[in-house]
Amino acid sequence: MSQRNTGVTPQVVNVHACPVREVLDRVAGKWSVQILVAAAHGPIRFTELERGIEGISRRMLTLTLRNLERDGLVSRTVHATVPPKVEYELTPVARELHETLLRLTDWAERHRVHIAESRAAYDTEHAREPADA
What we know:
- This protein is mainly α.
- Helices cover 62% and strands 11% of the residues.
- The protein is built from 5 helices and 3 strands, in the order ααβααββα.
């Protein structure tokens, strides 16, 4: 007979997980990751990001950049030219995050075949079970 883990309550989970979840939700978003990867090579202009990130709208790019800047992950520099030249660059904290993303990407590449095979085996094994099981 197994012992129950009585220390796990919704309050305990929320106290520890909510702040982390909030940060991960922001930095792991589809557009945030692509912006971080694109800006990892040095300062980049808005139009370069817009052209380089397939499927992102101007509005979504603007909102995501604003949120990344607010979170201290991207710095925005406006150069006094006509028209103004605006560049975005990763902050030191975001550079550390980028290194972590590279490790995660490496892990995913090394294990993607295993995960695909595991999914296929699970789906085959559970194909006859009712959907609500």
